[in-house]
Amino acid sequence: MAQRIKTTISGSLPKPAWLAEPEKLWAPWQLQGEALQQAKADAMRLAVDDQLRAGITVIGDGEQTRQHFVTTFIEHLSGVDFINRKTVRIRNRYDADVPVVVDRVARARPVFVEDAKRLRSLTNQPIKFTLPGPMTMIDTLFDNYYKSREKLAWAFAEILNEEAKELAAAGVDIVQFDEPAFNVFFDEVRDWGVKTLERAAQGLECKTAVHICYGYGIEANIKWKQGLGDEWRQYEHVFPLLAESLINQVSLECQNSRVPMELIALLKGKDVLVGAIDVATQQIETPEAVASVLRRALQYANVEHVQACTNCGLVTLPREVASAKLAALAAGAELLSEELGLR
Questions:
Q1: How far apart are CA 7 and CA 185, in angstroms?
Q2: Torsions phi, psi of 324, nearest 5?
Q3: 40 lies in which domain range?
Q4: % helix / strand / coil in the chain, to the nearest 5?
Q5: Is residue 103, in this structure, part of any structural domain at all?
Q6: H or E segment at 220?
Q7: Residue 20 lies in a domain
Q8: What is the rounded distance in angstroms from the CA atom of residue 181 to the CA atom of residue 294?
Q9: pTM, whole model, 2 decimals?
Q10: Is residue 262 within 8 Å of residue 236, measured between CB atoms?
């Protein structure tokens, strides 16, 4: 008999107000120096505790030590100018002032390994750590050196692979690469996007995942989704490629989305992290609403390959809302597990 349905978050959780401004991307830190480092550690402990109290079974750090899921990693690399920024269009949706690649990018030392070690010390349950994917990294920069999206992506893939191997050695059970850009640049995904993702995951001794969503619950993403029509079929371009890849898990958006659930069948053999929590609304899902999404997913994937997840990161939501949504996620998965008689 299959195990009970696992639950996990896609990545971020809200930060405490004493750490960073709430409900905001790229929110500046409220502290500096040693006080900031201690506050980050405290916030991670709270994020883990919130997940454990809610009943989440695969635990993340809530990205409490990062201002942003992409740029915080890039800040620790050489070859990137964070002072003289340029304005670019992010995934053809909104403008942002981003760093500029001015030289060969390189990683002199680990970026998140100490965070991963801390996360490992906070729970005996399986842990997942998230990294930005190569294509999403290049889409959050202005490249004034490589002059080639593909060349820069390959450079980042090698750097990410170094980091991911050290995360695995620190006790991380799953390394997840976030690639929302996969839902936009279909030709590049086909030509080299999945290949660079595989390079980032090459040789890892832990499970690997890729998260592909329709973005945080911010106005630009909400407006973009409103113009996508009655059916969102972006995954149809990507899933067959991922099914043939070495990536073990795929995290996708399902709750309150117009993604045809049958597209999950394109991921046969992969673990499917079914987004059953909407990050674009403060309305709290009921356990039955979560179970309903998972139940529909089971029409196209075996139960041992289905996990319950959030659509995307929860950082833009109030903390009390995010906590309630986590509890609903766990309760919904438990409801369906009981219904199916899973042990």
A1: 29
A2: -65, -35
A3: 33-340
A4: 40, 20, 40
A5: yes
A6: helix 219-226
A7: no
A8: 25
A9: 0.96
A10: no
In a domain, 5, yes or no: no
- pLDDT confidence bin for 1, thresholds 50/70/90: low
Q: How many domains does the chain have?
A: 1
Q: Is residue 169 part of a domain?
A: yes
Query: Per-residue DSSP letters for 113-179?
Result: HHHHHHHHHH-SS-BEEEEE-HHHHHTTSEESSS--HHHHHHHHHHHHHHHHHHHHHTT-SEEEEE-
End-to-end CA distance of the chain: 7
- Rounded CA separation 1/341 (Å): 9
Three-state SS for 17-72 is CCCECCCCCCCCECCCHHHHHHHHHHHHHHHHHHHHHHCCCEECCCCCCCCCCCHH
User: In angstroms, rounded to a whole number, what is the distance separating the alpha carbons of residues 53 and 100?
Assistant: 41
Consecutive H or E run containing 101: strand 94-107
Average pLDDT over residues 244-272: 97
What pLDDT is attached to residue 121? 98
Distance CA 256, CA 150 (A): 34
CATH number at residue 192: 3.20.20.210
Pull the structure tokens for residue 115: 């965070």
Give the pLDDT confidence of 29-62 residue by residue, as tens digits.
999 999 999 999 999 999 999 999 999 999 999 9
